[in-house]
Amino acid sequence: MAISVHALFSIITPKAVVPGLTTAVEILVNIVLLLFTFLAAEKCKTYNRDWGIYLFVIAGIHVLRIFFEPSNLLRNKQLTGFQFSVIVTELVVVAVLFVIAGIITIKKHDTLKAHLKEIGE
User: Fold this and answer.
1) 71 CB contacts (<8 Å, ≥6 apart)?
2) Theoretical Cys-Cys bridge with 121: which of 46, 79, 105, 116, CB 3.0 to 4.6 Å?
3) pLDDT per residue over 2-14, tens digit each?
């Protein structure tokens, strides 16, 4: 979550960035993603398989974020290539971490179900 927040601030705080409607949308999307991420973290603690799968969707949304506001700012020369590279790296790292968390949750869910079946519960 911290990397995602840092990526957002890397997108909206450079001095050359002129805030607009797309900037507001980027902020709103990030807030919603943070809320769903927190909910997913809580649900994954109970090895909820569905929320493990939802983490893959959240990861995909983070990857898609690269192609909207950061790419738009780079095209308009409001971000340098280095700033864009940092943002892309952060968003990809966030997505990879969500995929890993989803895989771990699903594996632990399957292990728990097998164990409960084995003991008859």
Assistant:
1) 84
2) 116
3) 999 999 999 999 9
